[in-house]
Each structure stands twice: as structure tokens, then as C-alpha cells.
Write the C-alpha cells for this entry.
Amino acid sequence: MHDVAAHAAHHAPTSFIRKHVFSLDHKVIGKQYYGLALIAAYVGMALSWMMRIHLAWTNAAIPGLQLLSKNGAPGGVITPEYYLQLMTMHGTIMVFFVLTTAPFAAFGNFFLPIQVGAEDMPFPRFNMMSFWVTFSAFVVLIASFFVTDGPTLGGWTQYAPLNAVGSISGPGQGTGVVLWMASIGLFCVGQLLGSLNFITTTLDLRVKGMSLMRLPLSAWAWFITSCMGLTAFAVLMPACILAILDHVAGTSFFVPSGLVVSDQLVPHSGGSTLLWQHLFWFFGHPEVYIAIVPGIGIVSHILITNMRRPMLSHRVLIYSMGALAVLSYMVYGHHMFVSGMNPFSSLVFSFPTLVITIPSTIVVLMWTFSLYGSKLRINSASLFALGFISMFVSGGVSGFFLAQPSIDIMLHATYFVVGHFHLVMGVAAMFGIFGGTYFWFPKMVGRMMNETLGKVHFWFSFVGAYCIFMPFHYLGMAGNVRRYSSFVDDYLQPLIPVHQFITVAALVTGAAQLVFLYNLIHSRFYGAPAPDNPWQATSLEWSTATPPPFDNFGGKHPVVYHDPYQYGVQSSVGDYVMQASPEQVKTEDEEK
Amino acid sequence: MAKFFAITLIVIAILSAIPILLHTWVAPEDISTHGALIDEQMSETMAEAGISFLAAQFVLAFFVWKFANPAPDAKIRKFPGGAKGLVIAAFLVVGIEVLALGIFGVKAWANVYLTPPSPGAMPIQVQAGQFAFYFRYPGPDGTFGPLHPELINESTQNFFGLDLDHDQDSKDDIVTAEMAIPVNKEIHLLMHSKDLGHSFYVRELRVQQDFVPGLDVSVHFTATKVGKYEIVCTQLCGLGHYNMKAYLEVMSQQDFDDWLKKEAALQ
């Protein structure tokens, strides 16, 4: 437990640079991460718009795009290679700089220390470094737009040996790949430093009375995610370094002998292309859960507050998130069923992939059946939380198909896979971020967001996301291969109208995200002032001032008396008791 | 708003299910001997996934409809079965479901990957390179000549890097840009990549397999229906990836023999 005296309090900085730029305050760092994720999300979305327009109307000119790349988009018309480059950047930016950064690093940084009752994280300098290293990683990645040949076209998975043989294999495969690997290598360093802080904060800095089981579900989710982050990013980082060495030092980690690329015999020998896939997916599958587990925690936290009752079981949700984390390492081979690895391994990887459905189902059942007999409040945050459940189910059930090697023969590398992961780790995780934003924004900046705009944003996003991603599954079942810049194959021609429908849906849904941006910026300056506890919530972040002072609790150290979610009771303040309130009330289903 | 959410959710769930029920966009007819098991597995999975999807969305919609914004004096109630009942149900229902899918799925997978080709299977080599497939038939001697990557030369059409001057086995090899196979004859496809990762995907054949540079892999299959089908690349291989394709012609044995003779004459 946290020994207050042993943790030397750092004082509030006064200079602009220390306060807002190189800040050691976890709350500022959390907001910086949020800002980075926000910029990355809109860049990623803009890229997806260009891709969608190109897929539906291949020869359409996108005004002004030639300014970004004269060769990639002459006259604003996207070339096949530029399509792949935009696609690669879209995937990379979204997976790393949005889905990992926002729910985990941004909200986790801001709220984990407050939810455990700490003044800050144990290693504030590491924390500051983690953000600035991540920021540098983003700058390096974006820089690849401006080098000769542009960014890499190899997809966010950067398969070998395309990632290692250099520019002879295509535009962006020289400097573009090196910058990608450098960026992601740096990103890994940032996440390792962050994870270290999250784990130590949870284990060492909990205030008196805050046992592990009294941690809110969001804190548990960040803790479990940081354990995954520490082990998964530690594998991706060396993989990136080895790929850079293949480029700049003439090594052959991922390139076998005898390859002839563009009529040139590649001067490498002895490497393994499958090695990259094993390393990448050993990171890549836990990464899916790094993106979604914080969402599971955040959504649980929001739902409980708005249902005015605890979940049917706090422990079962924690154990399920833990099971997802452990299983996530054992299933990674399902990305490689037809990769050429030993076909017996495919069966071995298939079983844990099917089994992971069980904890996922339990999580959904806990959420859904906790709604039974609740007093559900409908607001922007709870709508996004409910939307999250729906998306998580829709994206999850397609996992039944992809977990089976025999069916994967048909569906691998098709739009079915694209639909699956966009729903379950893209849209669902984004809904977690949106829900978290509507819920925590008042605490983070001291002002309320506009509820009407929030609901408009929800409806367009919810219906829009289904219009975009459900048809992806149908395309995949018809055999529509992903990562094609246009559909020249005979059998793909009849599917183009479906792509056109998806593009229109994507443009409308994307436009609705501008409502969110407006709401965010407008509310930041002109929103109604937020009270300390606008949602009548129980966890520690709501017992401090809004926004929280520099040391989180104004020089005091809260003492925790209760489980995190004491709702549906009769207390002096209403139907809830805050964790830090000594008031004792009778509860019907307090978990022992 | 809660009721609107519930209705929207139910409408979305039903609309999502309609193209599946109507078979609007589905895989084309299977032309392989092993594909029936895959298709069957797919239908069973669709039934299980579809029921789970609809049930989960409907229950969510129903609870939101029923329990949102209740009267201020409403009491919180607990789901009668409690968490324990739900966990047991999840383990039993989903556990049995995935176990069944897993066990039955093994057979469909084993048919393609865990059984060796029969001794009489006809060997064909396919080589993938940016952005074309080439095919090689061993000729009358039944043996493929060795590959020499350094001899690969597009301009002289030596796509495989064969040394016709020195390797006896290469002399009768037949190299083609299209793949033809006799119907109802097992094919043992030997897959070799010239440069990068590629994949061999024929929807009708229910075959998809990656090429692994530096490692030769193989698949085997039997086509049961005469016709012309597209072979496409499904592993991102560079700027021309979308356009990397070839045709597979499934012919009668007689037509195939004639075709092979014609191709041999062109070498």
C-alpha cells in the first residue's frame, strides 16, 4: 500500500513549459495523450475517406490530394501504390496512435492514479518520456509522407520479406519502411514506460482501504492491459529493430536466399519470413485486447454508474478480463492458418481461439443481465456504452468463423476479416473512447459537454458504423479480397455497388465525427461549469474537485471504506455511497 | 430515447440477417472434392453465430426498452439466476458450441492439410512473383528440373530460372501462364515464390494458401467441374497486387492432353 511519506510529493510547476509541455503531472500527460489520439484519429479518418472514395470510384479526383503527393495522386487521382500507402498509414495510425493511445494511455494516465487514490504515478519522468517518445513516434510516421516515394505500402502488419528487401520491391519500401519500423519501435518504448508506471501505480500506490478487489473495473482493465503491454510491446520492439538492420546493416533476419525482386537477385540469405509473422502476431493478437480491454473496463464503469447498480458480479468481470489477456497470447496463430506454418499448429491455435469466446460471452452476459431490474439512465455516455456492447457482440460472433482453420481457407484475407476487426476492435473501442469522453470530460476540464450534440453524434455513429461494416462481411463471404486498390477481377465487378454504398455511409458517418469535434472544442471553452460529481458516481475521481488539483486530492489522502460500486442503496446523498465516504449503509448484494 | 435505441437495434439486427438468409452474396458453387465439408462447417457456424448474434441483440434491446428511465421510486432488482447461473450457462452453451465446431472442423481441415496427396496425384508447380503466376508441368519424364534464381530473366521468358543447357530434367518442362488441369484428377500443387509473399486463392476450389519465400509448400485438391475460374493473389505483394491473377481451366482429360501438347510445342 501507498506510504504517503515515502512518496516524495512533487510541487506544482509554475513555468509554462513544465506545466503544459514537459509536464510530470499524470493528468496533463493523459490530456496530451488524448490530444495526440484525437489528431491521429482525424488523420486516420481522412485517410479512410480517400481510400473509400477510391474503392468506389477508382478514377475519381480528390481535389487537393496532389498537393500531398504529386506522384501518388497525379491530378488528385489515387494510384494503386498510393492507395496501399494510404491504407498502411490508416491502419498503423488507428491501431497504434488511436486505439492503443486513447483508451489506455490517455484515460488510464488521467484516471488510474486518481482511482487508486495516488498523487501521481511512481515514475513521473518515465511517464513524461513515455508521452514524448510516443509523440516522436507519430512525427516519424507522418514524416514518411514527405520522403521520396512516400510511406511504406506494406500494410500495418508489414509482412516479410516485403518489409526487408528495400525499394526494389515498390514505392515506400526503402526509407518508408525504415521510418515505419523506427516509429513503431519508438512507440513500443513509450508503451513499455507507460505500462511500467501503470503496473506500479496499481500495485504500490493504492490508498488505505483500497484493496485490489475494491478497484473500479476501469482501473482493473488498465492494470490488465499494462501487463499485456509490457510483454507484447517487448516482442514487437526487437522485431522492428531486426527489420531495420535488414535494411541498413545488410543482415538477413527476415530474408531467405534466392529471391529475385525486380529482376535483381537479392543479396541476402538464411532469414525466415515466417519468423516476422510469429513475432508480429505474438504482439499483434494481445494488441487487439490492449485496444479493447480498456474499453471493457470503461464501459463497465459507465454502465454501472448509469444503471445505478453494481454488475451482477465484480469478480467475474475481472477474471474474464484476465482470461482474455492470458488467452490472447495463445491464439495468435489464427492469423497464420494459411501462412505455410505447420498445418497441425493451426489446429492447436484454433482451440484457444474458440475458447476465448467463453470469457467474451461471460462479459457480455454480465453487462446485459445487469441491465435487468436496473434504473438505466440514457445519456450520451451510456448510449455509447450500450452501443459498445452491440458492436462487441457483432464483431465477436464473426470470430466463430475465423477461429476455424477450415473456414479460414475461404475467408482469410477477405473483407470478412476487415469487417470483423473493424467492429470488434475498431468501432467498439472507439465507442469506449467516446463513452469515456462524454463521461469523464467534466472531470478532465471542468465543463459539461453538450448532450444533444452527443446524442446526434451517437445516432449517426451507431447506425453509420453498422452500414459500413456489416456489408464488409457479405463482401468477404463472396470472396472479396482485401488490400486491393480496385476490383478488376471478373467476379469482383458485381460487388462494386456494395462498395459504393459503404463509401457513402463512411462519408456520412465521418462527417458526424466533426459534430463530436465541435462539441469537444466548444464545450472546452463554453460548456456549463461541471460540478464535482455530475453523475452521482462513487469512485475516487468523483470525490475530488473538478478539475482535480495538482496533487489530485488537495493535500489530503482519501481513505476507502467501500467496494467501488455502492449503488441502489439509501444514503444521506441519494442512492449511492462514495468509496471515500465513511457512511455505512445496508446493501443487499455487497460482494464479500 | 431508450425505446428508440431498442427499436433501432432490432431493425439493424434483422436487416443484417436478411442478406444471409436470402443468400444475397455468398461463395460460388464448390467445384472441389473437399469443399463440401468446408461449406457444411460454414453453414453450421453461420447458424450458431447467427442465433448468438440475434439473441444477444434482442435481449439487449429488450432490457434497454424495459428498464431505462423507470419511475423514481422503482426498486433495483437482481436477475433471478444471478452471476453464477450465467457463468455456468456460458461455459455449458458456448463451451459445447465451440467444442463441436472445433472437433467437426478438424475433419474439414485435415482433408486438405493433414492428409498427403495420393501417389498418383499430378504434380504442377506454381511460381508467384510480382505480379504474375507461372505454372510448370514436369513433361514426359515426370520430373521437374532444378531452379536457378540467378538465371531468372523476364525478357527471355525464363520465368523459373531453368538451365536448359545443362539440366536434363528441365528440357521437357512445360511453362505456362495459365493453369489447366484435368477434371476429377487429383492435383499436387507445389508452390514456390520467386520474390515475396503471395497467395493462391481460387474461391470455387475452396483453396487458399500463402507462398512462403524460401520455403516450398504444397496443397492438393481435385476439381470436379469443367470451367474457367480466377486464381487471385491474397497476400499483399506490392503496387500491382490487386491485378495479380491468372486463370484456372478445368478440362476433360482429352482436352487437357491436347492443351498440354500444344503448350509443349510452344516451349
User: Anything to note?
Assistant: Chain A touches chain B through 113 residues (CB under 8 Å). Residues 1-8 of chain A have pLDDT under 50 and may be disordered.
